[in-house]
Design a protein that fits this description.
Layout: H1 3-15, H2 20-24, H3 36-52, H4 58-69, H5 73-83, H6 103-117, E1 123-129, H7 132-145, H8 153-168, E2 173-174, E3 181-186, E4 192-196, E5 199-207, H9 225-232, H10 234-237, E6 241-246, E7 255-268, H11 276-282, E8 290-292, E9 298-300, H12 303-311, E10 316-325, H13 331-340, E11 344-349, E12 362-376, E13 379-387, H14 392-397, E14 403-404, H15 407-411, E15 415-426
Parallel strand pairs: 1-2, 1-3, 7-15
Antiparallel strand pairs: 3-4, 5-7, 5-8, 5-9, 6-7, 10-13, 10-15, 11-12, 11-14, 12-13
Length: about 425
């Protein structure tokens, strides 16, 4: 062992009474496969060996007294049996000598609470609350003694509790980044908080009737996707509520058909965490205005929500619109209209019907393709292939010049949308 390590450990004990854990933690990054209490004991033993050969010297004997005051049993026996000195063990300056004695008791309470609350999970992480005065004393010792190999007391407690939990919950996995549950232990009071992380489920939804919306923003809608999921699925997962995060949204009077719109559902505080195969049955909706895809189900993490939102405008969407003309059109006008809107850039300002956004907000989107089917002299069916985020109703009407170019402008007459459906959202 490097003399510098021994001298640092001895200097720490001269200034502070430290238990094995708190001394060993100053050198936590040295050695392999050792816990800090093993490091602390080993250091005290080595120091005792160094001192024992010079025990006749007064200053050396005082150092052995410091060892004994830290609870080092060989030093206590040596002083008592050889020198007739009875030394009183002092409390550890940092932790008080009690924090690490409660670990087994706390771990048992954690397991009991998990079973009592019936929480299903695969991965977990452990955190601890340690009194501020303990952290300040630890910082004082590390600063005054100076050790580049130290770790924090919180880190050691988290690791010890995590390892013991692993023994009692062998089928669970310790996970730092995205655990299913976060276990927080108050080391002093013994209070245990178990935070169940949301279950994020990726799927697609189809809206098969009009008059319903993604979320219940207005009173005049029949229901919403979010309410349907809360009413039908949350209880199956023991979740408090569900929040929907979709790749864009369609108007209340617009159906979402085809394969459906990409969606992430956040189930808050779920007691059950089924596998992806089991989720197909869990998220099944029957006799509802919405359908969830049971063939495209994935368990994802929170980052998928940001990805979904960010990609919304990069998705290609296909719409079908039934429109009414104010005048008759010829086949030549229809062909010209299709050609004009091939890879055509559209400039739009916030539609007058949307009050939640600034009317001056400008967006530029693409129409990639337009197919027109003439149903009768003044009734057309339009198939619009466009960039996500395009206001299709305003593409048809022009919205009094707020969208340009528009189908109404291109035909030189009023064009009114009667029905609109989203046929597909392409990744």
């Amino acid at each position: 062992m490097e003399p510098d390590i021994v001298s640092r450990a001895l200097e720490a004990l001269r200034r502070y009474s430290l238990c094995d854990h708190c001394l060993g933690r100053l050198f936590a990054r040295l050695g392999y496969g050792l816990e800090n209490d093993e490091r602390g004991r080993s250091l005290k033993n080595v120091i005792f060996l160094h001192l024992h050969g010079r025990a006749s010297q007064e200053d050396t004997l005082s150092d052995i007294v410091k060892l004994a005051e830290s609870g080092h049993e060989p030093s206590l026996r040596y002083l008592r049996d050889v020198h007739g000195i009875n030394v009183e063990v002092k409390k550890c300056y940092i932790c008080g000598g009690e924090l690490f004695n409660n670990v087994d008791y706390l771990v048992k309470n954690i397991v009991d609470k998990i079973h009592e609350e019936g929480i299903e999970f695969k991965t977990y992480h452990v955190g601890t609350r340690v009194p501020k005065d303990v952290l300040m004393r630890e910082l004082e010792v590390a600063t005054n003694v100076g050790s580049e190999w130290a770790e924090s007391i919180k880190r050691e407690l988290n690791r010890l509790i995590g390892k013991k939990l692993k023994d009692l919950l062998p089928d669970k996995i310790f996970e730092r980044l995205n655990p299913d549950v976060e276990i927080i232990v108050d080391i002093c009071t013994g209070k245990i908080d178990i935070e169940v992380k949301p279950l994020y489920v990726y799927t697609r939804y189809r809206k098969i009737i009009r008059g319903v919306s993604q979320v219940q923003l207005r009173l005049n809608v029949i229901t919403s996707l979010q309410k349907t999921i809360n009413d039908n699925i949350c209880s199956r997962l023991g979740a408090r509520e569900a929040i929907v995060h979709a790749s864009g949204r369609e108007d209340t009077d617009v159906r979402m058909l085809g394969r459906g719109r990409p969606l992430v559902i956040s189930f808050i505080n779920p007691r059950r965490r089924p596998s992806e195969n089991e989720l197909r049955d869990v998220i099944r909706l029957e006799d509802e205005p919405f359908e969830l895809s049971i063939t495209d189900v994935k368990i994802v993490n929170r980052r998928m929500i940001e990805k979904l939102k960010g990609e919304a405008t990069r998705h290609v969407k296909i719409y079908r619109a039934l429109v009414l003309l104010s005048q008759d059109v010829t086949d030549e006008q229809i062909r010209s209209l299709e050609e004009y809107f091939h890879n055509r850039q559209i400039v739009q300002y916030t539609p007058r019907r949307i009050k939640r956004k600034s009317p001056k907000k400008r967006r530029v989107r693409m129409v990639y393709e337009l197919k027109v089917i003439k149903l009768c002299s003044r009734l057309l069916e339009l198939i619009v292939k466009c960039q996500g985020g395009l206001y299709v109703k305003e593409l048809i009407t022009g919205d009094e010049g707020r969208t340009s170019p528009s189908i109404s402008d291109a035909l030189g007459q009023d064009v009114r949308p009667l029905l609109l459906d989203v046929l597909d959202v392409l990744d």
